[in-house]
Amino acid sequence: KLQGLLIRLIVIKKVVVATLLLLVSVAASISSQDMGRLALLADDLVAGDRMLLASLARRALDLGPDSLRAIALISGSYALLVYLAAWAAWNERRWGDWLLVALMALPLPYEVYELVQQQSPSDAIVLGLNVLGLLIVLTRARRHGRTRSEEHTSELQSPMYLVCRLLLEKK
Hints:
Blueprint: H1 2-33, H2 35-47, H3 51-63, H4 65-90, H5 94-105, H6 108-118, H7 121-156, H8 159-170
C-alpha cells in the first residue's frame, strides 16, 4: 500500500514537471518564430522589474531561433514521454514502470555532475530524493514482472491447461 502511494506521488510530481516542460516547449517554439517580439518582451520585463523572466528572455535571444526550435522539440518530446509513462505507471502497466525507471535514471548523471561542481546541499537532497524515487519504482517494476511470471507458471500447471495440451497432442 505504501509503495503504491509513493509511486502515485512520484507520478504526480512527474506530471507537474512534464507540464512545465511542455510550457517551455510551447514558449520556445513561439519565441523561435518571432525573435523581434521576444526582444520587446525582454525589454518590457526589465522595465517591469521582473528580472528572472527578463534573464530567461535574454538567454533565449542569445540562443537564436534554431536552438529554440531544438529546445522546443526535445522538451516537448520528453514531456510527452513522461505523460505516457505516468499514465501507464498510474494504471500499473509493467512497461510504464520500466519507462518511468528509464526517464528517472536519464538525468542522474547530470545531477551527479552538478553536485560535484557546486557541492550544494540542495543538489544533494534533490539527487537523494530522485535516487530514492528511482529505487521505489524499480522495485515495483521488478516485482511486477516476477508476479506476472508466477501467474503464468501457475496457469501452465493448471489441470485445464494439461487437458487441453493432451488433446492437442493427440491430434
